[in-house]
Amino acid sequence: MRIDLAACHRLAAQFGMTDLIYTHISARVPGAEDQFLINPFGLLFDEVRADNLVTVGADGELLDDPTGLGINRAGFVIHSAVHQARPDAVCVMHTHTLAGVAVSALRDGLLPYTQHAARFHGRVGYHAYEGVAVDLDERARLVRDLGPHKALMLRNHGLLTCGATVGEAFELMYFLEFACRAQLQIQATGQAVAVPDRDAIQRAAQTFDRAAGRSSPRLWQALLRGLDRTDPTYRHLPPAR
C-alpha cells in the first residue's frame, strides 16, 4: 500500500495535478481500518516516497511521522471523513487543478460533452464551499454530498475521487481531470456544442462501470512500469521493525 500511495503522488505530479504542497492523497492502512497513510505537509508530490508517508489515527493523532512535518489539517478533515464513512474507499485523492477548480465553480458543473465526462454521468456529487475545510463538523456534509459516488466536486475548491484501490482512485481522477480540461477548451471556442443524447451518455457510463474492475489493474501496472523506468525512488520503504 505504501508503494502504491507514493506512486500515486508521483503520477499526480507527472500528469500536472498538483498545487505546490497543498493537496493530499491517502490510503487506508491494511489491517488497521481506523488508520490511514497521507503525505507530509511540506513535501512536493514528487518528493513523496513509501518511507516518508505519515500514519494517522482516527482522531487525527500522528502515529508515525518520519519527516516531522505533520499533515495538512484540511487533509485530515477531508480524508478522515471519507475513510470513516465509506469502507469501500481504500484510497482518497484530492486535487486543486486549474481545470478542476474552474469547472467546480461553474453553476452547471461537469457537462456531458465528452466520453471522459460521460463516465461520471449521474456518478459525481457536489459539495458547497464552506471555506477552508478545517472544521470537523464539515465532514458530515461532505460525506452526505459524496453519497454513494466515487467522485465529488468541491465547489470553488477542487476535485475528489475515491476507490477500492489506489489505482482506481487515480484512474478516476485522471478521467475527471481530463473531462474538466476538455470542457473548458470546448466552452472557450464559443461555438455550439454537439451534446450526445442522454441514452448514449448513459450507455457509455454503464460500459465504464462494467469495465472498471478489469481495466484499472492493467492501467496501474503500466503506470508503475513507467515510473520505474524514470525514477523508482518512490519505492523506498521504511526499515523493517
From TrEMBL:
Molecular function in Gene Ontology: actin filament binding
Q: Where is the Class II aldolase/adducin N-terminal domain?
A: 3-184
Could you name the Gene Ontology cellular component terms for this entry?
Answer: cytoskeleton
Classification via InterPro entries: Aldolase-II_Adducin_sf (IPR051017), Aldolase_II/adducin_N (IPR001303), Aldolase_II/adducin_N_sf (IPR036409)
Entry similarity comment: Belongs to the aldolase class II family.
Matching entries from PANTHER family are given as: ADDUCIN (PTHR10672), PROTEIN HU-LI TAI SHAO (PTHR10672:SF3)
- Specify the protein name: Class II aldolase
